């Protein structure tokens, strides 16, 4: 298994990140993509990944929250991000996206900042990790306008219609602990329509821990619970789906065997 989205630089992991990594390895996880949101976090993610070579990889992006925090300094932050990607060993640009739940910045501003980072990823030939909340229609329209982009819609919580639209644009879908929640039948229905070669696993740790750990700190080791729920929902064998999602993660993010 590969956890394609976690935040191991989060404050909730400061005291025991090495133990968290050890538990992930012991549970059968072969790798984790830790996400750097903002420049300082990207640097921390890069350093953490270098301390666990072959197991951890890092991504870096200006998500809606770090973009908002940058304020008038976004242009400088974007230039710093571009420099990091040109100089560092980052596996993906992200997470980046649209968040209409909080609407921290005007929607046209969010769109423009997303598109600049999509263009950066295409210039670098890097995959993208997309954050989208309450904004599927606008996100799909933007991605349709960037046909050279590729990557994953992370922590997918839409329904069948949203899933099919992203799939039609060539994107992968990442599923996390939400797929185990009792009230998430719509997400499980979406998971059933995803071709096996477009499916990815994630935890979004420390957020969205799967049942029976809901409400607790999520860890990459919990990704097996999400895989089990996905395999059950899709009527597939655990080991078959494990092999497929691992191969998908390696292919998309260039993970070495």
| Count of DSSP-assigned helices | 10
**Classification by helices and strands:** alpha/beta
Q: Which percent band covers the strand fraction?
A: 15-25%
- What name goes with the CATH superfamily? Metal-dependent hydrolases
What is the count of distinct domains? 1
The count of DSSP E runs of length 2 or more, i.e. the number of strands, is: 8
Tell the overall outline. globular
- CATH class call: Alpha Beta
Read across the widest sheet, the strand sequence of neighbours is 1-2-3-4-5-6-7-8
User: What name is given to the CATH topology?
Assistant: TIM Barrel
Low-pLDDT residue spans: none
Average per-residue pLDDT, rounded, comes to 97
Helix content: 40-55%
Descriptive tags:
eight-stranded parallel β-sheet, TIM Barrel, alpha/beta, globular, 257 residues, 10 helices
Verbal overview:
With 257 residues, the chain is of the alpha/beta class. It has one domain: Alpha-Beta Barrel (TIM Barrel), CATH 3.20.20. Helix content is 45%, strand content 17%. Strands 1-2-3-4-5-6-7-8 form an eight-stranded parallel beta sheet, with helices on both faces. Helix 7 links the parallel strand 6 and strand 7 (172-175). Helix 7 (160-168) packs parallel to helix 8 (185-193). It is globular, with a radius of gyration of 17 Å. It starts with a strand and ends with a helix. The model has no long low-confidence stretch (mean pLDDT 97).
């Amino acid at each position: 298994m590969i956890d394609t989205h976690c935040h191991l630089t989060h404050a909730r992991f400061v005291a025991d990140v090495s133990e968290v990594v050890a538990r992930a390895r012991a549970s059968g996880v072969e790798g984790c993509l830790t996400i750097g949101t903002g420049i300082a976090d990207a640097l921390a993610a890069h350093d953490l990944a270098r301390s666990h070579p072959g197991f951890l990889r890092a991504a870096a992006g200006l998500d809606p929250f770090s973009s908002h925090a940058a304020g008038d300094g976004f242009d400088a932050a974007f230039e710093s991000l571009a420099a990091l990607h040109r100089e560092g060993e980052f596996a993906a640009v992200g997470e980046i996206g649209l968040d209409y739940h909080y609407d921290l910045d005007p929607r046209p501003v969010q769109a423009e900042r997303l598109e600049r980072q999509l263009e950066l990823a295409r210039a670098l030939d890097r995959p993208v990790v997309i954050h989208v909340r309450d904004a599927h229609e606008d996100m799909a329209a933007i991605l349709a306008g960037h046909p050279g982009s590729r990557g994953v819609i992370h922590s997918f919580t839409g329904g069948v219609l949203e899933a099919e639209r992203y799939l039609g644009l060539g994107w992968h879908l990442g599923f996390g602990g939400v797929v185990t929640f009792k009230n998430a039948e719509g997400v499980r229905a979406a998971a059933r329509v995803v071709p096996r070669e477009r499916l990815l696993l994630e935890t979004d740790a420390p957020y969205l821990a799967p049942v029976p750990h809901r409400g607790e700190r999520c860890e990459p080791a919990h990704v097996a619970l999400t895989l089990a729920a996905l395999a059950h929902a899709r009527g597939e064998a655990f080991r078959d789906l494990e092999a497929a999602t691992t191969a998908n993660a390696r292919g998309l993010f260039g993970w070495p065997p």
